[in-house]
TrEMBL record:
Sample GO molecular function, one term: branched-chain amino acid transmembrane transporter activity
Keywords attached to this entry: Cell membrane, Membrane, Transmembrane, Transmembrane helix
Protein name: Branched-chain amino acid transport system permease protein
Compartment annotation: Cell membrane
Organism of derivation: Janthinobacterium psychrotolerans
Region (Disordered): 309-330
Amino acid sequence: MTTFFSRSRHAGLLVLALILAILPLFLTNAFYYDVAIRIALNAIVVIGLNLLMGYTGQISLGHAGFYGLGAYASAVLTTHYGWPPLAALGAGAVATGLLALLLARPVLKLKGHTLAMATLGLGIIISIVINNETQWTGGPDGIGVSAFSVAGLEIAGEKSWYLVCAVLLLLVTWLALNLIDSPVGRALQAIHGSEVAARVVGVDTTRFKVRVFVLSAVIASIAGSISAHYIGFITPNLAGFFHSIELVTMVVVGGMASIFGSIIGAALLTILPQLLSSFEGWETVVFGVILMATMIFMPKGLVPSLASRSRKRAGTPTAPKAPAKPVQEV
């Protein structure tokens, strides 16, 4: 049964690669390319966040803070110190990972609403620091970001950026799918099912929670750096509370514990504001109604709900739950 779902996931990866390959045929102008690039960047962050929330059951309401750290690391290091963009991206990812590692153990000891409040506070602190350090970050006015270049080759134009973001999305999706199918992934799902039961069967719950927290933070940082270079100008809103809520909503709407649900959720919530802009002031209300309807009629999220209904009609067994046997240490 596990092999069946593993093959289904990797077949989905091939479908995703095919969609990303043919999508440029339908992107007829720069605006459509811009939306596609933003979808890919959001999906990358949401995949990492879903590993933390959907598969491990750990809530984070401050993930935009890690996204903002990556973006501002690239902006500050390239603008003020003349670092190569790739080096700045790597330094931002390492610094974000170290910060996440430092905070993970005390924060992840909390559960439920207390964990949510702690991660919310972390995101708010990062946002305040970015706003106040005006000599480095430009404060509320924002800061310009230099073009992204590697070995003298500059990435410019929507088509080039689409290629970069599409390849990065495929890579992150592939890594996430392989992580889920590994002993580490089974341990994460066991923790989500019951942390006490996971300890009983030999899972070092603290170590695995810290690992996935750091991994999701680093993924968010890398996406933030890429986004900063693509946009060319960033403001503290990248690290704000509302951006964190948007990311969490993408996870929930697309489907908890669903990698492809993360991509669908990111695509839907990135496109919807554009489609609803014609409602002139009512777009937020319509947006809220759509989200409420999704949660009422598909509480597990779009992809898991639709997949469950499809399996019931076809008589296919549902996805296996966390194993009740000892998990191999990694």
